[in-house]
Design a protein that fits this description.
This protein is mainly α. The protein has 22 helices and no strands. Helix 11 crosses helix 17. The longest helix has 53 residues. The radius of gyration is 23 Å and the shape is globular.
Length: 491
């Protein structure tokens, strides 16, 4: 069997991928939001939220189930090939079902007639995601390939954005470019898959063995997709595309930050599944503790910083037309912590342990809470009400998961240095808050406040000897000294 890939290298590659996901909207959204205005960005956001439901149906819970299942047999090429063929067959069948239902919706739902072309273009993500088999590459921990491929396509899309989007009428082009950036690279996944599995049929297929667990993972995906995109759809149907545009400006920043917070967790599912399969429980617990502490440190800092400086972030990225997005953004920021923690407890701990039913129950609870609060608050508070609904939903998911598995995951929570994190947040706030009153530009205010806030935050964590912060610093110093030593030898 091939040697396991380094978790540190996987994390570095996934960080590059996360940074590309961060930089692409960071560069494009300020430009696009000012060209398309709230109504245009709202139309595209609504279309992508709508199509996400059909993509969810076509995937049938495969993004998580496929990683767990393939990672367990990755040491045997024949078993891996058989498993991958079975899962791909399920994906393609559901892809056809999704397109059939989408066609019926576009024909018979009057509210969808005006932007029919936009929906059709955005729907290409259904096919591209189905053939991409991203779950196979993640199960094999091919994060270098995933990162390089995705970054290249994002740079191509970035150039296309500035070349092709010039007027408010170009929202259809923008939608197509956004899908190209996120999904077109899946074509290369399909082309290169022969390196890891055989293309010829291997026989003895048993698709039925996947149906029951896939149904549970599909229900999980349904619940997650419903309550994460419900706000946008309800705002669009109950109020206007303008409100969707305001809310999208707040959510866009949150999504970028969530991708950063969950960057480590993304590489842990295949490794956690493998460790459990091999019954290496001590290593599994160490990985879990480090992941949860990492999430608490990173998400707490980002959460508080963007609550304090939400106005400057919205003004810089979206412009003055999006001022109504400031309060929703502040309300929604604590979800960084909630989502980060549930990503570890649910996806990185409970799913590898076969406790996906508990994860499903937590997501159903979040869905119900979100639906109730949205129905009550969106008509009166618009995007602010939607933000409150999302906040309550994510907190509900966290609470249900914690109480369902507190016996198994309490060790990870006990490893978090809560008072050191809080002390660091206080120091960061004190050191940066005065900068906001200097009357600097939005960019300079964010630049100086981020340096002061996160500099003080990191300094306190190191000064108080927070274990993970010190461990990371020690590793950085060792690598730096090693690099300096190599340079001196060459000289």
């Amino acid at each position: 069997m091939k040697k396991q890939k380094s978790l540190k290298k996987n994390f570095i590659y996934n960080t590059f991928l996360t940074m590309s996901n961060f930089i692409f909207p960071l560069i494009t959204f300020p430009y696009v939001s000012r060209i398309l205005m709230p109504s245009g960005t709202g139309r595209v956001s609504f279309a992508m939220s709508l199509i996400s439901y059909f993509t969810m149906l076509s995937q049938l819970g495969m993004p998580t189930y496929g990683i767990r299942t393939c990672s367990k047999v990755r040491g045997n090429r024949e078993k891996l090939t058989r498993t991958a063929h079975e899962l791909l067959a399920i994906n393609l069948i559901m892809c056809a079902v999704s397109y059939t239902l989408l066609a019926l919706a576009l024909i018979f739902v009057p509210a969808l007639h005006d932007d029919r072309l936009l929906y059709i273009i955005v729907s290409s993500t259904i096919l591209l995601t189905s053939i991409g088999m991203e779950w196979l590459y993640k199960a094999l921990e091919q994060y270098r390939y995933i990162a390089v491929r995705s970054i290249v396509f994002k740079f191509i899309a970035l150039a296309a954005m500035f070349l092709l989007v010039h007027t408010q009428k170009d929202c259809v082009i923008y939608g197509g470019i956004a899908i190209f950036a996120s999904s077109a690279s899946n074509i290369f996944n399909f082309i290169n898959v022969h390196k890891y599995i055989d293309l010829k049929p291997v026989g003895n297929y048993n698709i039925k063995r996947h149906l029951k667990p896939v149904a549970i993972f599909f229900a999980m995906a349904c619940a997650t997709t419903l309550y994460t995109h419900m706000d946008t759809l309800m705002l669009g149907f109950m109020l206007s595309k303008n409100e969707v545009g305001y809310y999208n400006a707040a959510v866009r920043i949150k999504v970028i930050l969530v991708s950063i917070v969950t960057s480590l967790g993304a590489v842990l599912l295949p490794r956690s599944s493998y460790l459990i399969q091999k019954k290496q429980w001590n290593k599994f617990r160490v990985v879990s503790r480090k992941a949860l502490d990492f999430v608490f440190i990173l998400s707490s800092g980002l959460m508080l910083y963007f609550i304090l400086y939400a106005r400057f972030g919205i003004m810089l990225l979206s412009g003055g037309y999006y001022e109504p997005a400031i309060v929703p953004m502040q309300i929604i920021m604590p979800t960084l912590l909630f989502i980060g923690v549930t990503n570890v407890t649910g996806i990185q701990i409970m799913v590898p342990m076969g406790k996906e039913r508990s994860v499903l129950m937590s997501e159903i609870a979040g869905l119900v809470v979100n639906l109730i609060i949205n129905t009550m608050l969106i008509p009166r508070m618009a995007s602010t009400g939607a933000a409150i609904g999302t906040l309550a939903a994510e907190f509900t998911v966290l609470m249900v998961q914690y109480f369902a598995m507190r016996g198994e995951i309490s060790h990870a929570f006990h490893a978090v240095s809560y008072w050191k994190i809080i002390l660091g947040l206080v120091a960061g706030t004190v050191c940066s808050f005065w900068i906001g009153f200097l009357g600097l530009s939005n960019f300079l205010t964010l630049a100086f406040t981020s340096i002061a806030f996160f500099g003080a935050y990191a300094a306190v964590l190191l000064f108080t000897r927070e274990w993970l912060a010190c461990d990371l610093m020690n590793q950085f110093v060792k690598k730096f000294n090693r690099m300096v030593g190599k340079s001196e030898k060459r000289a």
